[in-house]
Design brief:
151 residues, alpha/beta, CBS-domain
């Protein structure tokens, strides 16, 4: 199976430019139902992942809570606590599965490192669960019993 089958394209993904400020990131994350979003450089390359926790820890450490003050803090000054690894669109499903076990989403890049979208953990689990069920239904049928029946 090709990773592209699971891809949510960049045009449908909330992402943040790495040159943004903490305030801009907070406002974007408020509009979308994500707790973490990809960061993209000016050239569209995947630059990491920003989480709500990263923003909250930055605010706490700096003791800054007003939106006006948060406008002055660039995202480059935000420590990130968990880095989502990206995967090439040409990788195999094993690589995708390995990352999805550790991350809620997997950023996908093309062969130049340009961000093209994400694959969610949910999509990967659904694929492997469906595959597992198909395999077990076939093995149940080949053993002579009806699916779900014990011999």
């Amino acid at each position: 199976m090709n990773i592209a089958f699971f891809l949510i394209p960049k045009s449908e993904v909330a992402w943040i430019a790495s040159a943004s400020t903490v305030r801009q990131a907070l406002e974007k994350m408020e509009r979308h139902p994500y707790t973490a979003v990809p960061l993209l450089d000016d050239d569209g390359s995947y630059a990491g992942t920003l989480s709500e926790g990263d923003l909250l820890w930055t605010m706490k450490r700096r003791n800054v809570y007003s939106l006006k003050e948060l406008e002055r803090i660039p995202l480059q000054d935000v420590d990130r606590h968990f880095e989502h690894e990206s995967v090439s669109i040409y990788e195999d499903m094993q690589a995708l599965l390995s990352l999805a076990l550790q991350q809620s989403f997997v950023p996908v890049v093309d062969d130049q490192g340009t961000f093209i979208g994400i694959v969610t953990r949910q999509a990967v689990i659904e694929f492997f669960a469906e595959d597992y069920l198909k395999q077990h239904q076939l093995s149940d049928m080949s053993s002579g019993g009806a699916p779900g029946e014990d011999s």
